[in-house]
Specification:
With 371 residues, the protein is α+β, with helices and mostly antiparallel strands. It is built from 13 helices and eight strands. The strands form two sheets. The chain has a five-stranded antiparallel beta sheet with strand order 4-3-2-1-5. The protein has a three-stranded antiparallel beta sheet with strand order 6-8-7, covered by helices on one side. Strand 2 and strand 3 form a beta hairpin. Helix 4 packs antiparallel against helix 5.
Length: 371
Amino acid sequence: MENVLRPLIVIGGSVVLTLALGWATDRLLRKADERHRETPLWDLLRRGRIPYQLVLWAAMLRGSYDEAKVLEAHRVGIGRALTLVLIGSAAWLVIRIAAAIVETSYSRYARAHRDPARVRRVRTQVSLIMRVVSAIVGVVAAATMLLTFPAMRAAGASLLASAGILGIVAGVAAQSTLSNMFAGLQIAFGDMVRIGDTVVVDGEWGTVEEITLTFLTVRTWDERRITMPVSYFTSKPFENWSRGTPQMTGIVYWHLDHAAPVEAMREKLRDILRECPAWDGRDYGVAVTDSTPNTIQVRALVTAKDADDIWTVRVTVREQMIRWLSAEHPYALPRVNTADSVLPPSRRSPDGELRDGAVRRAHEPPRTGRG
């Protein structure tokens, strides 16, 4: 009877005590979250209840398993398995706690600062810091798990002795990966590009959606995702429309006839912009910037508070101006000249008539053959 009750008490007691402590801790965190709505820390800490309960269960069972007197032939293997579970769940819990603290710090910073550029910069830094912390904790946990095996401890000296050679080989083999990792840290703390920035890379316009230590994802206007190595942004030029202030100036071009009513277009542009909510009211203008033998190039200048609004203003102005010209001033649209040709003065008489010789030569059939 004792051989049956002892394992049930040890194992069942560990499970019950783990569930009880987990439930009590979750209740305390829930009450703390209800009292302190200004910070998300307590609610974020509740996300770590699963690794927390695993840590409690593995620790209690690891410490009391010898008293259970069950499967004693496999006592060493079961003990090592419980140790591995304890190490893994502890690393998982540390990552959850670190994520809760970092996310809370970012939330407080975002509420205290209204500058979107600074908030995006901190968001980028926080994301990369969390990835670095997760990688470090994961590597330490994996190394600790390996060191629980006697064979790995015995091989430790030889591994340390060859660390220099392995480091050189790994550095050469992973040169591209390491350069991307350093580029990711440079982007995070150099404030070159941030999550949420509007950029133009390789002729594609989009928004930075994700930044990691090795790659960066840009979401284009048509919902495509472009994944690029972060080293691209440290070695090649690119446009960052969110750098500094988000305000932008846009340009709309028309190719029109020389008789186009430019002054009337200025007044019409003012009327169009007054009815466009995306225009920020800072500036506008119309000017003739170029001319060809058949057309002139008219440029409209408009402003908006950010990249999305400047796109809306530009397409609105282009569409409504063309519609207005077609309805009110159709002569202003480009035309193909079909006027009669005029001969040079040497082919004309003083009274403007063609000379006889010119007429004859004009009507003579072309000569072919000899003589």
